[in-house]
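Example 3.2
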Amino acid sequence: MAQNVLIGTFADDTAILTSHADPQTASTTTQNYLNTLQQWLTKWKVKVNENKSAHISFTLRKEVCPAVTINNIQIPQKQTVKYLGLHLDAKLTWKQHLAKKKKQINIKTMELQWLLGRNSRLSIDNKLLIYKTIIKPIWTYGLELWGCSTKSNVAIIQRSQSKILRQIVNAPWYVTNHTLHTDLQVPTVQEAIRKKAITHHNSIENHPNQLMEQLLEPVSNKRLKKLWPSELLLS
């Protein structure tokens, strides 16, 4: 592996990550690795769809990394990429990801309207079971990461959950969302984030691979108010 290059692979998805304060240097390092990768692809007759690949610069600065190419074709530069089911925007705000999840929740809720709707004859317990097994997993995936998003972004999912719970019990307008969550014993989104964070922390702490312990080390170069995954335990 080239210096300052990190490779992440899962099935047929591959991510090439390069980090440097200078955008030009970051792109040069990435391009050098891509050139080496192209030689390997040619040798083993592996084809890459350049148009389905994406190049994104994760930065808070206005300037972005110069374009890179593979097989002499420029990789499209984007502001948002999807990797392993997570939508990553250039500033890692998770806003795009949560907007996508809200849309998926709305679509799935409409499909299950005949079961979850106010006129459904299903019991409340069965309606809740459907919500927890079909709809809730839509937004809990990757919660350990996107839980670091701002309160306003997290509220997008909370409003969706509250709306569904209100529909399940056919609650009148004067019943508060807090009452709904308490009576139905459904954790709020923020409570779910903290629970996931604790479980994730404990699994890393007890992992047999000692290298995993590095993920629990406190952040020493933090410059922004934004939360890190390791800080969700205290949120």
